[in-house]
Automatic annotation (TrEMBL):
SUPFAM superfamilies: FabD/lysophospholipase-like. A motif (GXSXG) lies at residues 49-53. Keywords: Hydrolase, Lipid degradation, Lipid metabolism. This is Patatin family protein. One of its GO terms (molecular function) is hydrolase activity. The keyword Lipid metabolism applies. It comes from Rhodoblastus acidophilus (Rhodopseudomonas acidophila). It holds the Pfam family Patatin. Residues 13-232 form the PNPLA domain. A motif (DGA/G) lies at residues 219-221. The lineage of its organism: Bacteria, Pseudomonadati, Pseudomonadota, Alphaproteobacteria, Hyphomicrobiales. The active site is at S51 (nucleophile), D219 (proton acceptor). InterPro entries: Acyl_Trfase/lysoPLipase, NTE, PNPLA_dom.
Length: 400
């Protein structure tokens, strides 16, 4: 009987949430990885990733542990090829130039249409054709795709779905058909993993659609928040899900902090839009989670997400170096707290799949995600100068 339990397929499904979401998932997964006995997150059978969750899922499928991701993506300790969040905000100059170059022709076409009396007949209506000159995205995500291609082409990793020892599904949205496309599925596994991640994280308006085999793809979260059903349909019996974005309850925050309630409207458009977007995707995800219990009654789906009074998660500035560190540590500690709080409930569910909680690990309050680094005892002048330069670069980025 024990062997039958251990043969259950296990999976991880990760929702999107932009850079903040990816950082939160790395911290949360680090806490889960060390607390779940009998479950190696990089050794799961099935991975599903959407948007920023696609970055993390692809890393796990390639054997990169959550702590390794923290070191590479958040602490930026990769000496040869560090990841800097600034590459996410590179202006799409090529897209701007291409659209600008089309403007004279579109203007001539609009004027010709108006003068010939062809529909639309009005002058203002004729000018609507100029909308085709507007960029499809403000920022260029080609640098992100190139970075991931280098990362997954390193020794011991693969940028090919078909060469993975497990199943990886990166979900994007086909822009023209408005349908979910699970790259990695049969017939969709010839696309490089890095290209699929780039497509899945192409949020409309921010990044141009990504062309793959003659079709254009955008953020996979347009159709569903989590796409956990992809893993369940593949036979996952234990599915660990992380959703990094939840709407904030300002009243709950006020009660927790014993301070006056923060008005989101007073904080302007970014806070209003963030709350709106989070509310939409979270309510949609909750409906999906309830449906999974009926559609897949023999599967256990465990969801981890920030609490509604988590102000740290809502207001973090991801492009601050210190904030990235703080958010990852925050996600790590909050997930540990949640595991302790839900321990009795989770023990019952996990036991069905040969997994248990490491209570001693969870009780150890000295554990942190960030490593404490010691300075070398002796360093030459050149090495010291290099270290000083790196420190000044980090300080400059933090002050931007």
């Amino acid at each position: 009987m024990e062997g039958a339990v251990n043969r259950d397929l296990k999976g991880v499904a990760l929702a999107g949430g932009g850079p903040i979401g990816g950082i939160y998932e790395v911290g949360a997964l680090a806490a889960l990885d060390e607390a779940l006995v009998g479950l190696d997150l990089t050794g799961c059978d099935i991975f599903v990733g959407v948007s920023s969750g696609a970055f993390v899922a692809a890393g796990l499928a390639n054997g990169i542990t959550p702590r390794d991701m923290h070191r590479k993506f958040i602490e930026s300790e990769e000496a040869d090829d560090p990841f800097e969040p600034e590459i996410l905000l590179q202006p799409a100059f090529q897209e701007f130039g291409r659209r600008l170059a089309s403007l004279p022709g579109l203007l001539a076409l609009a004027m010709q249409s108006y003068l010939n009396g062809a529909p639309p007949h009005g002058f203002a209506e004729s000018l609507q054709q100029l909308g085709r000159a507007l960029p499809a995205g403000m920022f260029d995500n080609e640098a992100v795709g190139a970075y991931l291609a280098r990362l997954f082409s390193a020794q011991g990793r693969v940028n090919d779905f078909r060469r993975l020892p497990n199943k990886l599904f990166i979900v994007a949205t086909d822009l023209d058909s408005c349908s979910a496309t699970p790259f990695g599925a049969r017939g969709l596994d010839d696309v490089p993993i890095s290209r699929a991640v780039q497509a899945s994280s192409a949020l409309p308006g921010l990044y141009p659609p990504v062309e793959i085999n003659g079709r254009h793809y955008v953020d996979g979260a347009l159709m569903k928040t989590l796409h956990a059903s992809v893993a369940l349909a593949e036979g996952a019996k234990l599915l660990i899900c992380v959703n990094p974005l939840t709407p904030i309850d300002a009243d709950a925050v006020a009660r927790k902090t014993h301070r006056s309630r923060v008005s989101l409207a007073a904080r302007g458009l970014p806070s209003v839009m963030s709350q709106t977007f989070r509310a939409l995707i979270h309510s949609r995800m909750r409906v999906g989670m309830e449906r999974y219990s009926k559609t897949y009654p023999d599967a256990d789906v465990i969801l981890f997400e920030p609490a509604r009074d988590d102000a740290e998660m809502f207001f973090t500035n991801v492009f601050s170096y210190s904030s990235r560190h703080r958010l990852a540590e925050h996600a790590y500690q909050r997930t540990r707290e949640e595991l302790r709080r839900r321990a009795d409930e989770l023990d019952v569910v996990l036991a069905r799949h040969g997994v248990s909680l490491d209570r001693a690990c969870l009780a150890d309050e000295s554990r942190t995600l960030s490593r404490r680094r010691r300075a070398p005892r002796r360093a030459g002048l050149k090495q010291a100068a290099s270290q000083l330069g790196n420190a000044l670069d980090t300080l400059e980025r933090a002050l931007r």
